[in-house]
Amino acid sequence: MAASESKTTPSDFFQAIGDKVAGDDDQKVVEEIESLCMNCGKNGNTRLLLTSIPYFREIILMSFSCEECGFANSEVQPAGSIQPKGTYYELRLTAMEDFARQVVKSDTATVKFIELDLEVPAGKGQLTNVEGLLSTIINDLEFGQEARKEQMPEVYPKIAEIIAKGRAMLEGSSFPFRVTVDDPAGNSFITPDLKDGVGKWEKHESSSCPPSATTYRSNDVKTGGEIPEKGEKIVISISNGAVDLARDILKSETCALECPELNLAVNPGTLGGRFTTIEGLLTQVRDDLRSQIFEANGNSASSGGDSLIPEEKAKWEEFFGGLDAAINGERPFTIVLTDPLASSFVQPLVDPPAPDPQIKREYYDRTDEEEEELGLKDMKVEGYEEDAAADAAAASAEKTEEEKKGAEFDKILDANMGR
């Protein structure tokens, strides 16, 4: 039996733009199709480019132009199917550089500028940045202002106020402000940034597993026991290469991880609970970040550089280079675990009760914010027996009062019937 031919995969058609440029010059990259112009009724030209957005997924760029009437149009369509999960992005802009964030907006996504109290419903797909997105909205609002002034004078000043606020945002005089992209189909995206580790950029996904995803697997570690009175901070110095990297580490889901020398900060809940080694934990952090910033398969020659400006790409390469050096034991660094529930642990390399000189432990009082996030501020742990008894007594008294009123009503009813 003859060997089966290799199967064609989506990556054969949807390549990064950098790969297309570096490929065979004779290969036709852009497909051109003659199509009807909806403006004048004559034939125009539609160009299709199948490409892959690094650290995102495959899309189709479409551009239409008509030489007869000059009409032109462009849009973005997702090449894949509806994703198993919807996505919600919220970006907080604090500097002019944030306007350059790339935005992939599908035709099912809703965009909202929170401080403007302005929401753009689902419509045409776009590949743009935050500045282009806001500029398009403001220009569309300004386009009909003159007619609106005569036809709807009561609406005109409200729209003018929104336009003025939007212009102030574009000029950089209204920082900070927020923009959200909500896509139930999961085909929209906002480019992350190195500074997003401190919580500036958030991505929310539902956690339910779709029935069709039969190969989905996940693992997590849940800690138990009573809630301690204080939180715990563990500082471990990694200076002995492979020996220290092989230490077992238990990181609870409430624990924050920080490596000052590596410019790395992982917020609580990001990785969930993990029981692994220090090397394994850092490797997972690196792989998760790289899959978001660069292409997940790692096979592309462009390595995500097509959508990153050179300065940003250099920063990310430097960051991942330092992280790789730490994982390979080529540089010393420090890990700081801050756990408000004191449920994390790092394996010592000395026999107890002698303390490990490389590990420092410190107990601290939880902040009000940590108490609130853990749901401890409204939790009553003492004296609840008395409250329960008081509630039972009040319920009994109320029942007795109702029975007394019922008896009096029966007496009055019997007296009236006797008459």
Structural key phrases:
single chain, 419 residues, alpha+beta, N-terminal domain of TfIIb, Jelly Rolls, 3 domains, five-stranded antiparallel sheet, 9 helices, 20 strands, 25% strand, disordered N terminus
Rg is: 30 Å
Task: Tell me the domain tally.
Answer: 3
Under the CATH scheme, which class of the largest domain?
Answer: Mainly Beta
Distance between the termini: 107 Å
Q: How much is the average pLDDT?
A: 80
| Parts with pLDDT < 50 across at least 5 consecutive residues | 1-5, 296-305
Put simply, the count of helices is 9
How helix-rich are the residues, as a percent range?
A: 25-40%
CATH topology of the largest domain, by name, is Jelly Rolls
Strand content: 25-35%
Largest sheet: 5 strands, antiparallel
Order of strands, widest sheet: 8-7-10-5-12
> What gross morphology would you assign?
flat
Q: What is the strand tally?
A: 20
Write the H/E string, N to C: HEEEEEEEEEHHHEEEEHEEEEHHEEEHH
Structural class: alpha+beta
Question: Can you walk through the features of this model?
Answer:
This protein is α+β, with helices and mostly antiparallel strands and 419 residues long. Helix 2 (130-143) packs antiparallel against helix 4 (156-170). The model is unreliable at 1-5 and 296-305 (pLDDT under 50). The strands form five sheets. The protein has a five-stranded antiparallel sheet, with no helix packed on it. The chain is 29% helix and 25% strand. The chain folds into three domains: 11-78, ZPR1, zinc finger domain (N-terminal domain of TfIIb, Single Sheet), CATH 2.20.25; 87-205, ZPR1, A/B domain (Jelly Rolls); 231-373, Sandwich (Jelly Rolls), CATH 2.60.120.
